[in-house]
Amino acid sequence: MKKYLVGLLCNNLAPINYYNLAEDLSIELIKFTRSGIDWEKQEIKGIMFNSGKWEEKVTRFPDSIYNRCYTSSTVTTDKLEKVIGSGKVFNSFTRFDKYKVYSILKESGLEDLMLPTYQYTREHLLSMLHEEGTVLMKPVKGAMGHKILRFTFQSNEYKVYIQTFYSVKIIKSADDLIIFIDKQCTPEKYIIQPFISFASIDGHVFDMRMLVQKNKKGVWNITADMSRVAYRNFFITNLTYDVLRIHEVFENAGFDKTILLELRDISIRVAEILEEKLCFLGEISVDFGIESNGKLRIIEVNGKPEKTVFGRISDEALQKVFITPLEYAAYLAEN
């Protein structure tokens, strides 16, 4: 049986045990970095999994490539695609711009699911605060929950919370608030959203993540789902108290489990839209919140989903989320 050569374009050459599963597929797997590409010789220097261990290896250019770099640039992937063929490199870029994603989905019929999102200006922040009372500021490009700021305006003073309600800073004037923001971050690289109190279990806010990946037939599918449960009095779930399957959370919170079907349909639709409007993709994750009345909201879409957390669901789930993109890469190599 012919074995196709699949490339993993990564930021480093550290072995990843979960990719050992590639030996069960009809592929050879070469993990490499940008510096391992010899454009003149059209060779790749990296590490290859062989007979139970990763070894240094120099190979020809792969038949297909799975981009695992966290980047907003397509320079390298575009250049690789010119060599190995159109449509042979997926996840062209993985660091999504939240405002651009919001704008695309809003214009594609999903506006009712989106959190209203605005590019930061001083005037817009203060106007929203005075009208809404509470707003969030997030980096426009992913930061894994870091540097998310929550502001409230009440009794002519401003309160600032970073990740948790335990820590609060009180600021007396709008000018001092803006000075504080300028010291904390580069506000021009932030977005503003109204703060919505999503459903919780015993005081623990939770979200819902759908992992959408193309399978061995090149079709978008939901590979796994999970719910991240935040620590009590935290308003973000990145610092995770517990990880459960979504149907378990729905049972505990009193929601109808049939909503899970709606989550699946929406997530696949999001993947299809973003691939059409952004770049050639093979996987994304879609994070949802649910209001107490059952209304769904898309919180965020990730172009480089964190997979190891699915190990808290089961070993089977963890293996599946790592092997599925390799199966898709094999499909691309063959077709």
From TrEMBL:
Keywords assigned: ATP-binding, Nucleotide-binding
SUPFAM superfamilies associated with the record: Glutathione synthetase ATP-binding domain-like
GO MF annotation: an example: metal ion binding
Entry keyword tRNA processing: no
Domain of life: Bacteria
PROSITE patterns cross-referenced by the UniProt entry: ATP_GRASP
InterPro entries, alphabetized: ATP-grasp (IPR011761), YheC/D (IPR026838)
Keyword Ligase on entry: no
Every ATP-grasp domain range: 107-334
Pfam families: ATPgrasp_YheCD
Signal sequence coordinates: none
Protein name according to UniProt: YheC/D like ATP-grasp
Organism from which the protein derives: Lutispora thermophila DSM 19022
